[in-house]
Amino acid sequence: MRKILVGLVIMVAAFIPFGPAQAQVTAKDVQVAARVLNFTATPFTGTVKLGIVYDPSVAASAADEAALTGILGSGLIVGSINLVPVPVPIAKLSSTPVDVLFLTSGLGAAGAAVGTQAASAKQLCITTDTAATAAGDCAVSVQSDPKVQITVNKASASATGVSFASAFLMMVTEI
Amino acid sequence: MTLKEWTIKQRTLKQRLGLVSGIVFSMAAAHQARAQNVDYGSLEQMFGQPVTTSATGSPQLASQAPADMQIITADDIRRSGAIDIPGVLQFVSGVDVRTYGALDAEVSIGGFAQVYNPRLLVLINGRQVYNDSYGFTVWNSLPVQLSDIRQIEVVQGPASALFGFNAASGVINIITYDPLTDKTDTLKIGIGSDGTYVGSLVATAQKAGKAGVTVQLGGIETNEYSSDSLPTLNAPYQTHADEENYAIDGRAKPSEHTEVTLEVTHSDSSESSQSIIYIPTPYQFRTQSFKGGFSADTAWGLFNVLGYINKDQGTSSLPLGGTVDQSSWNQVGVVQANDLFKIGTTNAFRIGVEYRTNREWDPSDFNGSSDYQDYAVSAMWNWQITPTLALTNAGRIDRLVVHRTSPVVAGTPYTQADYAHAQLTAPSFNTGLVWQPTGNDTFRALVGRGVQAPSQDELGLDVANPLGGGITQITAGNPYLKPSVTMNYEIDYDRVLAPIESTLSTAFYYSTVQDLLTASSVLPGNFTYPYYVQEAQNFGNGQVYGTKLVIKGSDPSGVRWNLGYTLTAVRAHMDIAGPPATPYDFNNATPVSAIVFGLGDSWNKFEADLQGKWQSRYTDVILGVGAAGVVYEPKAISNFVTLDARIAYNVTPHLVVAVTGDELQSNQTIVSAGPEVDRRVLFTGTYNF
């Protein structure tokens, strides 16, 4: 009888809605972000320097940077891409050469500088912070939990000169 | 951005319609997207679930598609141990697979099960392998190796708005690996009971992302099941079945934004097949196809042109008071073009045109040849109303025109002018509202109108057979047939059950079918000396009430499970008699209930799977000799269980050996009015190089 009750509890629990996903970047987020790079007009291949833009004084941002650096290690191979992390303190944003920007979460209004830099250097920016993409600070946001969701800010992408495959755009949320 | 803010940001519907009216002027600036075409593998890896284009023509996650769809993955196919596609499909909930021979099966979805099922469209990479002559699929003639299949997309419900005629009750779209991006190199050989031998080779040469070609060839040879349980009329009986086929699929990217495709296929098969008059018949079928395609990712969207020619030859030896050999040729040519584009951020469109010409010829069956042309335009609009709510509308109009230059035979109830001027216009549509309030819940409300066009034979067959005594039998197509229309209303709900690592899928539907179609050679005729005339007819209507409940899951340790229940209740109102006058008994022809179950595990170097299906009783039909002469005899098929199992061992990372058992529940099982199905054990070795 106890087993039946436990089983019923599990079944009921299965139908209870879950809360919002934790914002901290995960290995799965990184995999999704790397796959996005396959769908730009000129797909990235080989070694890609991922500039992890963070503010050491913002806890969430610093935590994202630490998590991301740990996930990527000395380089993470995803498909035809070797994603190499380059920590970029936001104060040194314009002076650090990278291929793609990754905007850590929690930067708030300071994230606008990343959008400006991306437009100036014609660099793709990716983040897990959907608010930053909605604000136009970063062209693409990715989430992987509970399901993969990709959001593209059309204006931001255009400003950075980045375009995507039609098939890709059919499957993402454009704003 | 909150949902409210997002919603406010969207334009009103009126503004959107204004946008659509300016479509021609705005498309060029709609977006600057131009890169790759649909890359199933990369998209699937990114989203972590299968991607499909079978619902709308636009790439979508299967879980978000506005259709009742199940995806059978390459892993599912491998673990099934099946040697052919019906063997894979038999354990898919909602799919009724009926075995009539060692390599002969009929597949139906959504009721109205019948041999030569004309209501289910089957395609390989978008090329139809459904034969337009009688409107059927010869499953063992499909030129594809199971090891080259990326996924099989099973759509339940009409999908004519995308695929055109004959996607009346559903679609099975077989997607192979892409030689541009996937490298498939596999050799498989096997030997089993009942004199069974299987072999297949798939090899890919590629310059990744630039060009690639996959060559695949394979075959199956086996003994037919015993004919002991069949009526004595059905001799001679083919005792051996085999199939051989090959396909060469080449794709190249002349530039970053364009892709060309060329494909050639060939197949030969020989089997005991349940013929359209419900009698086991030796049947040889040969197919050839040539396909070419071009696609470009442009500022105007993703543009595709596809053209192909299918040429089929069927030869049957009808055992009716002696052997009557019949051969016929059917050739279909199709050219289709469509453009898929997005306007703004929330509206995707597809517009398309299609031209199809079909011709069947046979010195006897058509007194020459008969053909038709079909012209179609189609459109799709997907509107992402909010981030969680999407509405998709798709429509298509087909205009079919019959041509006949050969003279009609004496006694035919129609003139050459009747055949020459026959034409029909058939609209179809699909509407789907998909709501995903959370990441774990998906609701779908679906309405669809599907069209089954009369087959080439039903429209243009014209045969005269002397019966003796000065009497001539005329079997005639009917140029005034109406297409059969299926309306489907459906509510689906899917739920991710994370605590038990499973997904629950439910579907509840109600369908109506109007103007059922029957081939000319099946119905009793009218006799006016000296002619006995049989002709094709629209013969009734029907409804189907259906439910599907499926739970499927797996855990990280490698254990996997699935359980599904399907209810299919058919209520048909036919204007013609049932057996023994005709074979039609749709109220009892489909099992009302079916339960599919599976359990598997992967550990160390082993992989083991058990699949089963229980289905309730139904009534099949066979043509036999009764007290009243040659009549259709109903045959009650009791409920039965099918059990298949496979155990595989990975000897090395490249070499896998496996043993598969089919129909483990019994030495012989009665599954249809065909021969009893034998248990089969098969040993295979697969080398992935």
What do you see in this structure?
The complex is a heterodimer of chains A (175) and B (689). Chain A is of the alpha/beta class. Chain A has a single domain (20-174), classed as 3-Layer(aba) Sandwich (Rossmann fold), CATH 3.40.50. Chain A has seven helices and eight strands. Chain A has an eight-stranded mixed beta sheet with strand order 2-3-1-4-5-6-7-8, with helices on both faces. The longest helix of chain A is centred in the middle third of the chain and has 14 residues, at 59-72. Chain A is globular and about 40 Å long. Chain B is mostly beta strands. In chain B, strand 19 and strand 20 (389-403) form a beta hairpin. Chains A and B meet through helix 1, helix 2, helix 5, helix 7 and strand 8 of A and helix 4, strand 2, strand 17 and strand 25 of B.
First-residue to last-residue Cα separation of chain B? 50 Å
Strand order of the largest sheet of chain A: 2-3-1-4-5-6-7-8
Q: Can you name the CATH architecture of chain B?
A: Beta Barrel
Q: How many beta-strand runs of chain A? A: 8
How many domains of chain A? The number is: 1
Low-confidence sequence ranges of chain A: 11-22
Output the structural class of chain B.
mainly beta
CATH class of chain B: Mainly Beta
Q: Would you spell out the secondary-structure blueprint of this structure?
A:
The complex is a heterodimer of chains A (175) and B (689).
Chain A: H1 2-14, H2 27-36, E1 46-54, H3 59-72, E2 76-78, E3 81-89, E4 100-103, H4 112-121, E5 124-127, H5 130-134, E6 140-143, E7 149-152, H6 154-159, H7 166-171, E8 173-174
Chain B: H1 3-9, H2 13-21, H3 23-30, H4 40-47, E1 51-52, E2 60-61, E3 68-73, H5 74-80, H6 85-89, E4 95-99, E5 105-109, E6 120-124, E7 127-128, E8 149-156, H7 160-163, E9 170-176, E10 186-192, E11 196-207, E12 211-223, E13 240-255, E14 258-274, E15 280-298, E16 301-319, E17 323-343, E18 347-362, E19 368-386, E20 389-403, H8 416-421, E21 423-438, E22 441-452, H9 456-460, E23 462-468, E24 471-476, E25 484-497, E26 502-514, E27 517-518, E28 526-528, E29 531-535, E30 537-538, E31 540-554, E32 560-574, E33 593-603, E34 606-615, E35 618-626, E36 629-637, E37 640-650, E38 655-662, E39 668-669, E40 677-678, E41 680-688
Parallel strand pairs in B: 6-9, 24-29
Antiparallel strand pairs in B: 1-2, 3-8, 4-5, 6-7, 8-9, 10-11, 10-41, 11-12, 12-13, 13-14, 14-15, 15-16, 16-17, 17-18, 18-19, 19-20, 20-21, 21-22, 22-25, 23-24, 25-26, 26-31, 27-30, 28-29, 31-32, 32-33, 33-34, 34-37, 35-36, 37-38, 38-41, 39-40
